Amino acid sequence: MQVTTKMIPLAGALAFAFAGAAFAQEQVVKIGHVGPISGPIAHLGKDNENGARMAIEELNAKGLTIGGKKVKFELLAEDDAADPKQGTSAAQKLVDAKINGVIGHLNSGTTIPASKIYHDAGIPQISPSATNPKYTQQGFKTAFRVVANDGQLGGTLGRYAADKLGAKKVAVIDDRTAYGQGVADEFMKGAKAKGVQVVAQQYTNDKATDFNAILTAIKAKNPDVVFFGGMDAVAGPMLRQMKALGINAKFMGGDGVCTEGLIKLAGDALGEGQVVCAEAGGVEDAQKKGMEDFRAAYKKKFGTEVQIYAPYVYDATLVMVEAMKKANSTDPAKYLPELAKINYKGVTGQIVFDPKGDIKNGALTLYTYKGGKREQIAVVR
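The line above is the sequence of Branched-chain amino acid ABC transporter substrate-binding protein; the predicted structure tokens follow.
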């Protein structure tokens, strides 16, 4: 009996030791996400964060093993309020938390300054939505994006204005952010190359709500198209004021305008086919089923429609983890080379990066709005 009573605590101790060893074998992998969760475009920031959360939860459900250890992924979500200073603070906070990689930021204006902080720390960064070309032109080997850049997006819209809308005269407004200014500049290049005249160039900011002065000046020029470089939170009230002033020009914008949220923000000022915009990504026929399934799963989980970027965030997160699996390591220095040469089929299409970190052969989707719904016009490359 004495032997048995001694054996019981010994067995318990051994079981505890084995459990402790198993627990020690599990590693926590921290994936950072940064977007504007507060401010005028918080609906887009939350959309992005939801995309990352979906990917993380699916990865954890799979019970992956990397480098001989079971992996538990943890999402560290930060709010940059679309403000460059807050963006760099958020980036430093994530670096200090020893993240294994970061998905973000949403805006070019926050992504570009934050990218230096991640680069200096050797942490891979994939932006799902920053389109300013400068982001990948800084020579940072840690910087990647899964959407087409402004050179492709703005230029395509400029050519479309001439070729498909028959525009002879255009007016251009931008919100002076890195994104807004960048996409507007590229639009003007594309339009001018087709012989279109830029008859007015006006500026606002990303928090403005009153555009009567600049729109009145534009109305006097009688343009065929008004192009806005900025986000939907500003575009919605701008469209309402254009209608009130009797400006009947077509309204064009980049992916920041091209959201589900614009429907509510602009209301009946959307018109029927008056707005033409482009999303910096595109799903062709072979991919449509996968995207539809994603949208349905997203709505079921979060009770709301995808705004715009969530599928790209989802893919970016899975691409980062795929690189870890290929390297058999979650160490940023070890999986970074695998990320640079990844070839991954995602919900949004095939993801392959060029030497700068831009997506190769990035697609664009052109949309308009009819009957209070966003309607696809075409996918172009």
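Note on the example: The first strand starts at residue 27 and ends at 35. The chain has two domains: 23-147+286-361, 151-279.
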